[in-house]
Backbone:
């Protein structure tokens, strides 16, 4: 049995392959788009995974620390640690900021953490973790910082001692991990000018700068420059305790907001990136429709180009099923080539996207199935045309 | 015909190669690829630890110099940076009425001296009178016995003598009172003189003036400072060490100090005292570190980074700190066996400043462990060991 489809493809193989490549690029874009969406969701979840917490304790009535600003006194963790079901509680701060590196500004999320506690980077690709309680950072590879490089954050210089990977905020800013006390200073301590102005303002207040009460002004000025807040407390729940119960307990007795993993995931994924995710999803649907349309057009025009041959086939008595199978096979083949090329290019160009592109194997399988179905459906129009070809066309004009 | 077969075969081979490349690409990159890791073999060896803290340069002995009573400043004789001797006059307060009071006091004292002299003369006069009256009385008494004088005349003379004795007593008492008066007025004069001296502010010790808080003409309350000075011999770095790492710090340990003004220069020093009081709010321990030789120019209040050498061991098993992970609620390290990962729980000891962590239990020398990984590891995951991950694509 001669494969009609194979024969035909062999005859015009360049045209066929190039069409496949074109289709492949389109499928590559579609897969990348899906990857971008997956990447966004993953970016949001990376924050949760890297925190390694069961409960996030934040300021009352806020959605902090990722979706809203939150400020908690940094001794709150002591009270939390004494609560039933709490295995560990650690302070963390988050601050999105720009760090200057030579000529360029790097936008990063500075995470203040206590070494050895929740909130530290879970793995490193190079170097070591932060061991000094000051002036050392672990940076994400995407920041472009090198080991041993000295970077400046606000008023201090820090040494990059370790590098990690895929540690980003929900808006894809790479993270820089620094010791908690430094991060508190960076976040809450004002710059020198502001401090000087604030001092002058306080000194000008006759109620605060009283004659006859030596030391009052000094004490006030000293209290203004202390930074004793954090953005959240990460709580680990002891085994055998229900996180929701523990969170409820914290909400009730400590007058702080507590979110479990599930609630925080909900905030990050469905609230924070909802609009952008919907945007991407809309694009994805449009791209899928466009791809389907293009596949059907290609198959259709390819079939129209073979009207004479089809008429000859009909004339020599080829059955309709054989002709339909030929067009279907060619269509599916085109889809297969397109998919392989698409998947390949998507994999190759994914690392060069500014945002993280996560290509899941499941998505690839789903993409393959969708491509095949779309190709099959797209061939229907062409099959219908092919079956309607009048055998007389072979002889006539 | 032949050419067509060759072309078909060629195309098929090409297609198969492309497919093979595709499969290879899928397996080598993305989620299906093995996790690339770097490994290290454990060895026993020397282990030196140190703790790190930041502190401020301070003088242990600092003095605030100011008046003990309210007043206005008359003059300030020294400025910030002046080196002063012990006892040197630094500033003066306005004595206001003290000079007049001193003059009054002195005059009163002088007057009291004179009053004392006059009382002395009166005492002598009374003594003489009393003596004469006594003699007269005795004479009258003996002549009266022989009836030369009437009894009335004798009694009158005795009364005169008694009266002179009483007068002498009174004058002596006046003399004592005048002496007491003189003492009182002298004491008062000394007090005013002391007060006068007190408005002169002098240096308690030799040192350097660090602040000039008030200028001539300023009115101050008691206790406010006019000048501040420090004893430069007592310079030290008040260092704050994280409580979690401060356990091994002892007095006498060697320290290296880097002043913020000179980041490249390490100045040797040593721990002079570990304070008993820690900071409950910042959760830090206060450690005093002194310079072996104080640097020539520095600023009080300057930030300094202090590294204190704490412990050293000769035969210690240590792993890179990046290898220690928390997995399933336990601390441990990942090992590779047959290209797949396995988690080995370990008990860890102290962590050194170069990033190594002491392993007390769970591993042996010669074990190969995973140090860095491309992503978080799971048990049984396939890994590919590489030399370095630093060039990893993002």
Residues:
């Amino acid at each position: 049995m001669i494969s009609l489809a194979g024969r035909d493809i062999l005859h015009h193989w360049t045209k066929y392959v190039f069409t496949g490549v074109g289709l492949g690029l389109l499928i590559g874009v579609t897969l990348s788009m899906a990857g971008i969406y997956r990447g966004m969701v993953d970016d949001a979840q990376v924050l949760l995974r890297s925190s390694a917490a069961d409960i996030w304790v934040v300021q009352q009535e806020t959605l902090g620390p990722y979706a809203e600003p939150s400020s908690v006194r940094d001794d709150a963790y002591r009270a939390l640690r004494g609560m039933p079901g709490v295995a560990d509680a650690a302070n963390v701060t988050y601050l999105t900021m720009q760090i200057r590196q030579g000529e360029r500004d790097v936008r990063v999320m500075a995470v203040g953490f206590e070494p050895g506690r929740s909130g530290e980077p879970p793995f490193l690709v190079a170097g070591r973790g932060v061991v000094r309680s000051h002036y050392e950072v672990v940076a994400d590879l995407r920041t472009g910082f090198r080991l041993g490089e000295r970077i400046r954050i606000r008023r201090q210089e820090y040494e990059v001692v370790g590098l990690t990977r895929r540690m980003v905020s929900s808006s894809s800013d790479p993270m820089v991990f620094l010791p908690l006390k430094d991060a508190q200073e960076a976040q809450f301590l004002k710059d020198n000018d502001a401090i000087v102005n604030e001092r002058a303002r306080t000194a000008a207040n006759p109620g605060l700068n009283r004659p006859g009460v030596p030391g009052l002004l000094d004490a006030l000025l000293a209290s203004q420059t202390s930074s004793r807040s954090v953005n959240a407390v990460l709580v680990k729940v002891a085994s055998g305790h229900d996180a929701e119960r523990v969170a409820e307990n914290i909400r009730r007795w400590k007058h702080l907001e507590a979110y479990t993993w599930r609630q925080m995931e909900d905030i990050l994924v469905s609230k924070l990136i909802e609009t952008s995710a919907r945007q991407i999803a809309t694009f994805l649907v449009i791209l899928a429709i466009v791809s389907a349309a293009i596949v059907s057009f290609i198959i259709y025009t390819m079939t129209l180009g073979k009207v004479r041959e089809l008429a000859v086939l009909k004339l020599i008595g080829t059955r309709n099923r054989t002709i339909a199978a030929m067009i279907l096979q060619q269509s599916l083949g085109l889809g297969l080539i397109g998919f392989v090329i698409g998947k390949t290019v998507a994999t190759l160009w994914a690392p060069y996207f500014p945002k993280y592109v996560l290509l899941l194997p499941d998505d690839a399988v789903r993409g393959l199935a969708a491509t095949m179905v779309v190709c099959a459906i797209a061939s229907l129009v062409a099959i219908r045309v092919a079956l309607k070809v009048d055998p007389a066309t072979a002889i006539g004009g | 015909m032949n050419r067509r077969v060759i072309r078909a075969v060629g195309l098929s081979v090409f297609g198969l190669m492309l497919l093979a490349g595709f499969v290879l690409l899928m397996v080598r990159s993305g989620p299906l690829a093995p996790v690339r890791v770097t490994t290290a073999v454990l060895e026993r060896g020397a282990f030196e630890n140190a703790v790190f803290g930041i502190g401020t340069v301070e003088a242990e002995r600092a003095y605030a110099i100011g008046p003990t009573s309210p007043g206005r400043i008359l003059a300030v004789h020294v400025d910030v940076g002046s080196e002063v001797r012990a006892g040197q006059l630094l500033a003066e307060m306005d004595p206001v009425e003290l000079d007049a009071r001193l003059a009054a006091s002195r005059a009163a004292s002088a007057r009291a001296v004179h009053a004392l002299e006059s009382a002395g003369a009166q005492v002598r006069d009374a003594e003489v009178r009393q003596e004469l009256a006594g003699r007269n009385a005795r004479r009258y008494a003996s002549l009266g016995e022989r009836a030369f004088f009437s009894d009335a005349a004798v009694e009158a003379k005795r009364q005169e003598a008694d009266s002179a004795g009483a007068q002498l007593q009174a004058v002596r008492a006046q003399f004592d009172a005048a002496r007491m008066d003189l003492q009182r007025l002298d004491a008062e004069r000394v007090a005013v003189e002391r007060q006068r001296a007190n408005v002169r502010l002098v240096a308690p010790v030799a040192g350097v003036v660090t602040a000039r808080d008030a200028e001539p003409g300023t009115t101050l309350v008691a206790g406010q400072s006019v000048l501040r000075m420090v004893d430069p011999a007592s310079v030290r770095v008040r260092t704050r060490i994280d409580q979690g790492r401060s356990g091994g710090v002892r007095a006498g340990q060697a320290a290296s100090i880097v002043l913020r003004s000179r980041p490249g220069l390490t100045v040797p020093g040593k721990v002079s005292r570990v304070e008993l009081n820690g900071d409950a709010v910042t959760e830090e321990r206060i450690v005093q570190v002194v310079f072996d030789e104080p640097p020539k120019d520095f600023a009080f209040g300057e930030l300094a980074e202090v590294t204190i050498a704490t412990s050293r061991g000769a035969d210690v098993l240590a792993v890179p700190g990046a290898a220690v992970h928390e997995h399933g609620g336990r601390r441990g390290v990942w090992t590779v066996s047959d290209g797949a990962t396995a988690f080995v729980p370990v008990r860890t000891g102290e962590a050194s400043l170069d990033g190594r962590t002491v392993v007390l239990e769970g591993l042996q020398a010669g074990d190969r462990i995973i140090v860095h990984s491309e992503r978080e590891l799971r048990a049984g995951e396939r890994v590919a060991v590489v030399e370095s991950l630093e060039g990893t694509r993002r």
